[in-house]
Design a protein that fits this description.
The chain is built from 13 helices and no strands. By secondary structure, the protein is mostly helical. The protein starts with a helix and ends with a helix. Keywords: Cell outer membrane, Membrane, Signal.
């Protein structure tokens, strides 16, 4: 009797669950329906429940039925967000772009422009990797800022541009340091100089200039005798520019030491040349 009672309880629970499931139409039943309004209703319900995959599948199916109706814009808008909310940013970017092309005068066009830029931001990788999407995000955000200067989204767009530029700065810095660590001192000096040109307002600007000086000094040290004087003079030129530009920098003392050392090397080379001339 006990086993029979347990079996009956299990059976009733199973039937109850089956009843609940049967109350909700399955995806196959929805997609096979010929009733476009019914399909749209179910897509909207899944969208509200944040069941993005199911909503997207039904929206895809129902879009052709509404292409010439006033509802099409709203359907496509939500369809685009189903991709975004599934973190399918490549597809979402394309859908936001298509929305803009299809509804250029929509009240939602500003939002779509921002979101298109934002999808590239979401695809921007860590600094060590290829930064194609970072450059695209900056470009699209900058266009958004220029074309919608009064938008409530401008401040956030500007903040994200600064964040992305910082990532590019980090990438360039790591690249320059790699040259230095590999002993490619001329390439390192040029890279640090370019880094400073690209990010003159950086909090690390004096460090970049200092590393350029340090790199060019090492390059001069390793140069052939006939090139040493010329290259140490270039170090002094860079160092004097540093002192003029960053007079309060924590690197100033080291930069002054490079000037002293470079002058000493130039003098040593000049003395050697004089000895050669007199003998």
């Amino acid at each position: 009797m006990v086993n029979f009672a347990n079996f009956m309880r299990f059976l009733l629970a199973f039937l109850f669950i089956c009843g609940l499931v049967s109350c909700k139409p399955g995806m196959n039943k929805i997609l096979k329906s010929k009733d476009a309004a019914y399909k749209l209703k179910m897509a909207e319900a899944f969208y509200e429940q944040k069941k993005w995959g199911k909503a997207m599948t039904i929206y895809e199916d129902v879009l052709p039925y509404y292409k010439t109706t006033p509802q099409f814009q709203d359907i496509y808008y939500k369809y685009a967000y189903t991709a975004y909310n599934q973190k399918d940013y490549t597809n979402a970017e394309n859908l936001f772009k298509t929305f803009l092309e299809s509804f250029p005068n929509s009240p939602r066009s500003e939002e779509m422009e921002y979101m298109r830029a934002y999808t590239f931001y979401k695809q921007s990788p860590k600094a060590e990797l290829d930064q194609t999407n970072t450059y695209k995000a900056i470009s699209y955000f900058q266009t958004f800022i220029n074309t919608h200067p009064q938008s409530v989204r401008v401040n956030e767009a500007m903040r994200l541009v600064d964040e992305l530029r910082k990532k590019l700065e980090v990438k360039e810095y790591k690249s320059a340091m790699l040259y230095y660590n590999l002993g490619e001192f001329r390439a390192a000096g040029v890279s640090f100089s370019t880094l400073l040109d690209n990010y003159p307002e950086s909090n690390s600007a004096d460090q970049y200039k200092f590393m350029a000086i340090k790199s060019f000094y090492r390059f001069a040290e390793l140069s052939i005798a006939s090139k040493k004087a010329e290259r140490f003079r270039e170090v002094i030129e860079h160092a004097n520019n540093f002192i003029e530009r960053f007079p309060e920098s924590k690197y100033r003392k080291e930069v002054e030491d490079y000037i002293t050392s470079s002058n000493s090397e130039i003098q040593k080379f000049s003395n050697n040349e004089q000895v050669k001339t007199t003998t």
